[in-house]
Design a protein that fits this description.
The protein has 128 residues and is of the alpha+beta class. It has one domain (5-121). It has helices spanning 5-14, 17-32, 59-64, 70-81, 92-97, 117-123; strands at residues 36-42, 45-50, 53-58, 106-108, 113-115. It has a three-stranded antiparallel β-sheet.
């Protein structure tokens, strides 16, 4: 699937976290041509399911990952931890998710700086 980093950047900046998660989930479902579901557990937690894979994510962590492809990568990595197998060079979209473009970072609001997705996830290890 092809994607535009500029358009995704605008979506990340201008959407509420609830709407942005919907954009991300739809993109992942389209990429793998699979049904994917987003359910709100409560006001602070979401659950995303595709096939037999499941990701729980807090609103706080999702907000911190709200960048062009940071949230996508987080969800994909959580699926990979559950043995979902895919090639990280399979499409332009997946390559963007894994940083094969200039500017592969997440804007961390609290520090007012860009950091790697891995660095940010270390800060929030129990926010899934």
């Amino acid at each position: 699937m092809n994607t535009s980093g500029r358009i995704r950047g605008l979506q990340a900046k201008n959407n509420s976290i609830g709407n942005f998660i919907e954009v991300v989930v739809k993109a992942i479902g389209q990429e793998f041509d699979e049904e994917i579901n987003l359910n709100k557990i409560n006001d602070n937690k979401f659950i995303i399911t595709m096939l037999d894979y499941e990701v729980k994510i807090s609103r706080k962590l999702a907000s911190e990952l709200q960048s062009p492809y940071g949230l996508d990568r987080y969800i994909l990595e959580e699926f990979r931890k559950q043995d979902f197998i895919f090639d990280i060079t399979r499409s332009q979209y997946i390559q963007y998710c894994y940083g094969n473009y200039i500017g592969a970072s997440v804007y961390y609001k609290e520090k007012d700086e860009h950091v790697s997705v891995d660095e940010l996830l270390k800060k929030f290890p129990n926010q899934m």
